[in-house]
Amino acid sequence: MEINNCFNKIKTYCFKFIKSQETRTNKFNNKNKMLKSYLIPLSFWINNRIKKKSTLIIGLAGGQGTGKTTITTIISIILKKYFKLNVFKISIDDFYKTRKERKKLSKSKHQLLMTRGVPGTHDYKLINDFFRKVKNKRFKPFSLPKFDKSIDDRCKRDQWYKIKSKPDVVILEGWCVGAKAQKNSELLKSINTLERHKDKIHVWRKYVNNQLKTNYKKMFKKLDEFVYLKASNFKLLQKWRIVQEKRLSLSTKNKKNSKIMNKEDIINFMQTYQRITQHMFKQAPKYASVIMQLNNNHQIKSIKLKK
After folding, report:
1. Rounded CA gap, 91 and 125, in Å?
2. What's the domain range around 76?
3. How many domains in the chain?
4. pTM for this structure?
């Protein structure tokens, strides 16, 4: 009864957003089922976890191309429109270090750290500061950076997010949100050509893993709940990520200095993500509060909500 009632109140808003994400060749199937069976129940689950006057911080992760941003947006719509909650969603991508900072890092630590993505290329101090500010009982308005992937750098300050009032719910989404470090012995074997040729003596992977062990571990401990979108394999993620980049190229067609990638670029770029993504396939379901299993057609096929 409650699910149907919620569905009737939010469907217009959700369908409007879904339509904005569709292309001529890429349509969403089973929209009703996605909302009624998975995303509305998840929204009820989130609402039940909110404590009075305290901001609930949710981490939402999944490999590249799993639809994290789409799912986060739909959940936000439901929480705002039906539960009347103040929701702020942001991607961990928005906290990437600037091109200038990554250039410096690539010279001092390893050349692969110029490529945004892996732990160590985010401004984790800024994320910790963000968590502290939203949890503060004496809330003061503040701004957060916005990252533009088409230029591989932060937007100008006047385009940053402005948080004017204390959120009831914060959703931080990203492919490596909630990731845990591997054992040192697991780092010895290269898992792809990028690691074999560009990280022969394991400097890059050890640096990234050490970030997960230290700075990111402390940061992810501040998440109240963790939602994980699980795809069946890495090849599927590559396929979905290529589709995603095509969409990005359509929306940024006329931009100067565009950093849009072709198919080969994407496959190479995703090799930097492969190690942590595959580790998360095995480990994240063990500690996630919510597991959403995705089928090969990019749809949610099951959801497991931990009590």
Report:
1. 15
2. 2-305
3. 1
4. 0.92
